[in-house]
Amino acid sequence: MIIRFILVAALTLGTTSLPARAETLQNPPMDAPSAPVLKSSVTVTADVVRIGDLVDNAGVASQVAVYRSPDLGTTGSLRTAQVLETLRANQVIGVDTQGISEVSVTRASRAISVKDIETLVAKALEHRNGLGDAANLSLTFERDLRDIQLDSSVNGEIRPAITRYDARNGRFDLLFEIQSDNGGATRLRFTGTAVETVEAAVLARNAERGDVIKASDIVIERRPKAEVGNDAATRTRSVGMQLRRSIRAGQALRAGDLAKADLVTRDQAVTLIYDAPGVYLTGRGKAMDGGTEGDTVSVLNVQSKRIVQGVVIGPGQVSITIPTPRTVTASLASASPADEPTPASRSPENAE
Predict the structure, then answer these.
(1) Given Cys at both, which of 145, 146, 180, 194 links 154, Cβ 3.0 to 4.6 Å?
(2) In this predicted structure, what is the pLDDT of residue 143?
(3) CA 346 – CA 49 distance, rounded (Å)
(4) pLDDT: is 221 or 29 the higher one?
(5) What is the pTM of this model?
(6) Which contacts of 219-224 are long-range, i.e. CB under 8 A and separated by 24 or more positions?
(7) Of all helices (H) and strands (E), which one includes residue 312?
(8) Three-state SS for 90?
């Protein structure tokens, strides 16, 4: 029966082929649709992959979903043989593979990096309840941060919806909202602690009182402001200065820990200098005190064995000022006419 049906069909086709050919010549058919062409790589935004994502010219089958999409922001691959089998099952045949061995599928997303999260939180906490600038905040999150991948439709500005910060323990609790194309909002919550820090000069070695700080003795680190206070010393301010107290390695320097380096030390042999207009004298002395430039110190004059006071003016140099005796000029006040004696006037008794 099947063979007969085929033969009958063939005969029938043969009897009508001549008129049909003539009609075709008179009315040529419309252009045949282009053959389906496989893509080597695609990017999808939905949670499913459709035939139209994988193949150009897929016709009515374009909207048929055939695979689940990769996770947001990730890329997967499909073997060409696997794709062709799926296409045939959906009546898509004659696909031009262009020699492609596999198809790369990427799920589009909006990425928010760990650095972006830290910046958002710091900006939200800036100047809140006594905190300083965002750049000076050190953040510790309760959960380890990872890059966040959001659906590509979530394209609105990231805005803080709720901001809580407790200055007593440094804890924060923040909620951010992001609007999407469909009118909904995605919420992101972050909790942890925030500490304001300052840049400080930190000793790289143990140092004793009186040690002079060198550039190699200093490293710059950010330290909690509560630890250092408002008088944190800088590198520029520290180098060449002398310590007022002993400090261990790893401690931050404060301005109060530093003083100008002594130019004269106790028991040091110094030069006594007397410099006055027309006179310049020098002598030998022994410092009884230590001091830096401008300090007043006591010095033993080696020759006279007297202790004198002087001002440190340089390394091992003390300027002596010799008191100048005051010159007192006495002047006679001119007698006023009112104080001069007047001639005795005749009294009525002498008039006689």
Answers:
(1) 180
(2) 94
(3) 145
(4) 221
(5) 0.63
(6) 221/252, 222/136, 222/138, 222/197, 222/198, 223/197, 223/198, 223/252, 224/138, 224/195, 224/196, 224/197
(7) strand 307-314
(8) coil
With H, G, I as helix, E, B as strand and everything else as coil, classify residue 178. Answer: strand
Q: Calculate the average pLDDT of the chain.
A: 84
Secondary structure (3-state) at 14: helix
162/252 Cα distance (integer angstroms): 36
Alpha carbons 171 and 225: distance in angstroms, whole number: 16
Q: Is the pLDDT of residue 332 over 60?
A: no
Q: Which residues pair with 221 in a beta bridge?
A: 200
- At 129, which amino acid appears? N
Domain 269-320 = CATH 2.30.30.760: yes
Nearest to 43 by CA among 97, 109, 101, 90: 109
- 169-183 residue pLDDT tens: 999 999 999 999 888
| Domain range summary for the chain, segments of one domain joined by + | 37-108, 112-197, 198-260, 269-320
End-to-end CA distance of the chain: give it in Å, rounded.
Answer: 198
pLDDT 10s digits, 206-252: 999 888 899 999 999 999 998 888 888 988 889 989 898 999 999 99
| Topology of the domain covering 198-260 | Type Iii Antifreeze Protein Isoform Hplc 12 (3.90.1210)
